[in-house]
Amino acid sequence: MINLQLPIQEDAIRELKVGDEVLISGTMITARDAAHKYLIEEKPDFIRPFLENSLIYHCGPVVKKTDDEWSFVAAGPTTSIREEPYEGKVIDDYKVRGVIGKGGMGDKTLAALHDHGAVYLHAIGGLASYLAKTVKSVQDVFMLEEFGVPEAMWVIEVEEFPAVVTMDSHNFSLHNRIKDHSASVAQKLIHPVS
Amino acid sequence: MAVEVNEQALEDQLYQLIVNASTDLPPDVVSALESARRREPEGTPAKNVFGMLLQNVDLARKEHTPICQDTGTNIYYVDYPSGTSTRQLQRIIEKATERATANSILRPNSVDPVTGKNTGNNIGADHPYTHFEESENDELVFHLMLKGGGCENVSTQYKLPDSSLEAGRDLNGVYKTVVDAVQKAQGLGCAPGVIGVGIGGDRATSHLTAKKQLFRKIEDKNSNPELANMETRLYKDLNSLGIGPMGFGGKTTVLGVKIGAANRVPASYFVSIAYMCWADRRHSLTVKNGEVIYD
Hints:
The complex is a heterodimer.
Chain A: E1 2-5, H1 10-14, E2 21-30, H2 33-41, H3 48-51, E3 55-57, E4 62-66, E5 69-74, H4 84-94, E6 98-101, H5 107-116, E7 119-122, H6 128-134, E8 135-142, H7 144-147, E9 153-167, H8 174-190
Parallel strand pairs in A: 1-2, 2-3, 3-6, 6-7
Antiparallel strand pairs in A: 2-9, 4-5, 7-9, 8-9
Helix pairs in contact in A: 2-4, 4-5
Chain B: H1 7-23, H2 27-39, H3 45-63, E1 73-81, H4 86-102, E2 129-135, E3 140-147, H5 149-154, E4 156-159, H6 171-185, E5 193-200, H7 203-213, H8 225-238, E6 254-262, E7 270-276, E8 281-288, E9 291-294
Helix pairs in contact in B: 1-4, 2-3, 6-8
């Protein structure tokens, strides 16, 4: 198990390899579909300090407001591939050191991870109550009114958030390997040699 | 005979049904996950994933928090006795839904596709989704499933014959489409999933047939022997794909396969595949002669 403390620098990210299991601590920000479109189309400058040398978490949480404080009740990852059209550009433009999500991403993101020194961290889908417990505080929220709860950008402080490196900065993707293997098994099942 | 509906009591019971569905994974699914965990070798990401999933299930049950933050499309199948107002039942379901949303049991998950606005309370066109069926019995039965977007996005439909799969209009053709769909889904539907298959029907009823299969328990055996054999064969072969939990690689890619059939017209042969994530959240509520049963 490798501990990752945010903010994090390029050299620490370059050391990570596919298959590494990590525990993440520090401040990061959630962003999903509406936020990615917004980051690319509107290029908001105020958000830059929250992204630089930190991580984006693909997550639309269940939250609770008690008095004036927000807390996370359930917060597993959402499917990352929907952000494929944007993610490479977001990593480049905002100097993000990685994304956390589920399901993996495509070749454009893999290339951006390589070129800019970033990593894809796979969180466990459906681990919502468990992961919400690792969120120690909600520090801020942006675009809540415009995007709604799931799509807003939540600035959160996490402690020992578990994830697995499935795409690294050296062009390796666990997802490509599993896809190739399962495709060859499926091929034999679908087209058996008689 | 119509049963008398006590609105406040039923709203409370439906609220409890939503809490059960969101926070308490059914025992048959838990035991399927436990068996899957035992099959994986020590020290692999797959073993660790199953261990954490089970911890999460325990935590959600103890703290009454959602198992998954994507509390999904809320799908209700309601059996009601003759004479009961379905509009009244719909209204009560909506009240319970609003309350569950306000109490963070459900995420505000209903978005107007034209304006892009989230309604904030899970009420909107076809939300929650309800299907009412008149029954012979003097009881009200509510079956509820919370179906997340990730697994819904990998659900799909085929039209046979399919030349690329060399799939004809028979059960062997059906088999090939299911293998193809699960391979293409990889870990994206939050594997290991439960696979509902609908054979026949039209475009819409084929999907409906597939989705209805997901209400069957994992151990349920198909009453049609041919379909029962196909369920067993697919279960075994899909688990040889090696996709594993989350697509990390492993021995369990699916927890179960359930197949149903609806008659088709001669020109059409659809196969629909409804993928349900490992967080297979389905529960029921029966109200009969003042007695209330949750399952």
